[in-house]
């Protein structure tokens, strides 16, 4: 008598040694795939931005970008000798790299579970712990590579004799500017990052089984979470198409592709927030700036020498370019499409008000996550004999979201469009629906 193969549920109770080895290999594959994907996208973006010409620092810069994309903290530092001091700060996430790493890691984390009928809390926890531990270990190793010092070259501008004098003085002491990874905050925020990625992966997946105690949360959570992921990705795709068209028709293709490969969601998710009524506060001063649309740069520089931050919202952008009003109907169409998808993926017994509530909460939470990661704070200054910043060598760029305002509008839009999406989906056959004549 031959024995029949064990069902999936029985295989999940395999001897611990076999389970541990399999889970460890699958966790390693997820971590390696995630970091390789991030490294490839970051490397292409830096190459398009011209970073390949950096004097011996491309590998370190690449590591720093991957660290920042994983939620890590990179500190800037400078040394200009006894006569002068340099101050530099940078807080930003290259969200294209972040998004690619999250998608690849999440997919690889879920893939071994897709053929399971059920999964136990023990196995799910074991898989998550394996990915988290290996991720943090890899992040610590990459952080060790993210350190470099560059010589600071001060050109003698013929129209600025004072700069020429300072340049001669500072060249004598070989001023430098560099960066280092702050390992403590990097591992802490890296832990939050990978936990968030794994949690979102489980939330948006339709086929991945959950432990029995969590199954009851599947119907109200997963359809709305999946719809919000589609909404964020839709904005990225729209921005990608626009960027490719701009690169093909307006010139500066390398710079455009650098933005697409490094910071596309930084711009498109701001467009989403602004389109639904949210706002950001910001300012741009000096010769430095962000790789951003000209209309956004114009708003940030609109305050001139005023110390107050400029408000970036639909009206301020439209004052610079009337085409910014298109952000409103685009948001309406895409949010309605996401609401319809959420309703179609929900059981037929879910009422319209439940659709509205589910999408409202999901959209508010989405903006509570998406808006803060668009934060940018960059400052560089050179002071001589401790007196101020040299105007032509210093600058700052600040872009901070009004998080609670933007999340509040997300809640209102989710409630309204969740109701409309459920109404539209009522004409579509859905899971759990039974024909009246049967």
Features:
alpha+beta; 8 strands; three-stranded antiparallel sheet; five-stranded antiparallel sheet
The SS-based structural class is: alpha+beta
- Cα distance spanning the termini: 44 Å
Which outline best applies? Answer: globular
Mean pLDDT, to the nearest integer, reads: 83
Largest sheet: 5 strands, antiparallel
User: Helical percent range?
Assistant: 55-70%
In the predicted model, the low-confidence regions spanning at least 5 consecutive residues are 6-15, 384-392, 434-438
Q: Could you give the order of the helices and strands?
A: HHHEEHHEHEHHHEHEHHHEEH
Number of strands: 8
The Cα radius of gyration reads: 25 Å
State the strand order across the main sheet.
Answer: 2-7-8-5-6
User: In what range is the share of β-strand residues?
Assistant: 5-15%
Q: Treating each run of at least 4 consecutive H or I residues as one helix, how many helices?
A: 14
Describe the protein.
With 438 residues, the chain is α+β, with helices and mostly antiparallel strands. 58% of the residues lie in helices and 11% in strands. The chain has helices at residues 8-11, 16-48, 58-69, 95-110, 121-145, 161-171, 183-204, 218-249, 253-275, 294-300, 314-320, 327-344, 352-370, 403-425; strands at residues 74-79, 84-91, 148-151, 176-181, 280-285, 310-312, 376-384, 395-401. The strands form 2 sheets. The chain has a 5-stranded antiparallel sheet with strand order 2-7-8-5-6. Helix 3 (58-69) crosses helix 4 (95-110) and helix 4 crosses helix 7. The longest helix has 33 residues, at 16-48. The radius of gyration is 25 Å and the shape is globular. The two termini are 44 Å apart. Residues 6-15, 384-392 and 434-438 have low confidence and may be disordered.
